[in-house]
Amino acid sequence: MNDIIRAVPEQAGASPEAVPAGEADLWELLRAEARRAVAGDALLKVYIDLSLLRHDGFVAALGALLARKLAERFLPAERLADLAVEAMADDPGIVAATVADLIATRTRDPAAESYLSTFLYYKGFHALQAHRLGHWLWRRGRRDIARLLQSRVSEVFAVDIHPAVPAGRGVFIDHATGVVVGETAVIGNDVSMLHGVTLGGTGKERGDRHPKVRDGVLISVGAKVLGNIEVGRGAKIAAGSVVLKDVPPCATVAGVPARIVGWCSDEVPALAMDQSLPERKD
């Protein structure tokens, strides 16, 4: 790999490693990790060959992986894989966002030991990439198949993101179970959210009724952000909070209902992944 741009932050018990600069670099890294995994445990050979080594590139491997996980009787894996490859060929931005998402998951989750394990086993990553396919379908007017795919993703991964929702690059959904994102929500670049997060409506409105989450925001476990409100750039929402009003950029909010309890201690909370709150000064 010749084109390394930065280093992964050191995690507990691990030494820093280079971050792939793009799709080709990531693909070579995935293949190298796959060969090492197969050499270390022959039981993995068939699965890793099917998932990665037999494919000629990142796009084909990802399309096949998602198709195999989401296929059912009336959604054949072959057709789904072809659809995924078609979407990524039509919109190269999907591939760039997917690469950024994979790097984000690997570098922000201390449990992610390799790019290979992240690619193969992290359902938050899988759900988000399937959503990107659904959003591509939605934007092209193929709304019925987009809704069918959304339903299937919800069944398989327990993540329910409306296909109308635009999502930026470098998004990390940790654990992912129970994440719900409504139709008119917006997810910016470099956002991190954990399981049980809801970006929902208040239940009394129609039209534009869901949150707009700007770049670099961290939304912690079980937080509920409700209504057509804005969560400003670099804000942090504490675990279990219920957010009903705009959150200023760089603010930390907590509670039910949420209120401001502090301001940025990290330049980009979503990258730092620090879910602690400022100490109270009584």
Account of the protein in words:
The protein has 282 residues and is of the alpha/beta class. The protein folds into 2 domains: 136 residues, serine acetyltransferase, domain 1; 101 residues, UDP N-Acetylglucosamine Acyltransferase, domain 1. The protein contains 9 helices and 14 strands. It has a 6-stranded mixed beta sheet. The chain has a 5-stranded parallel beta sheet with strand order 1-3-6-9-12. β13 and β14 form a beta hairpin. α4 packs across α5, α4 packs across α7 and α7 runs antiparallel to α8. The chain is globular and about 55 Å long. The N terminus is likely disordered.
H/E series: HHHHHHHHEEEEEEEEEEEEEEH
CATH H level, superfamily name of the largest domain: serine acetyltransferase, domain 1
According to CATH, what is the topology of the largest domain?
serine acetyltransferase, domain 1
- Total discrete domains: 2
Strand order of the largest sheet: 2-5-8-11-13-14
The overall average pLDDT, rounded, is 92
Count of DSSP helices?
Answer: 9
Distance between the termini: 53 Å
CATH class of the largest domain: Mainly Alpha
The CATH architecture name of the largest domain reads: Orthogonal Bundle
User: Strand share of the residues?
Assistant: 5-15%
* Assembly context of the chains: single chain
How big is the Rg? Answer: 19 Å
Major beta sheet summary:
6 strands, mixed
Structural class, by secondary structure, is alpha/beta
State the low-pLDDT regions, or none. 1-16
Query: Which term fits the overall shape?
Result: globular
Total DSSP E strands:
14
Proportion in helices: 40-55%
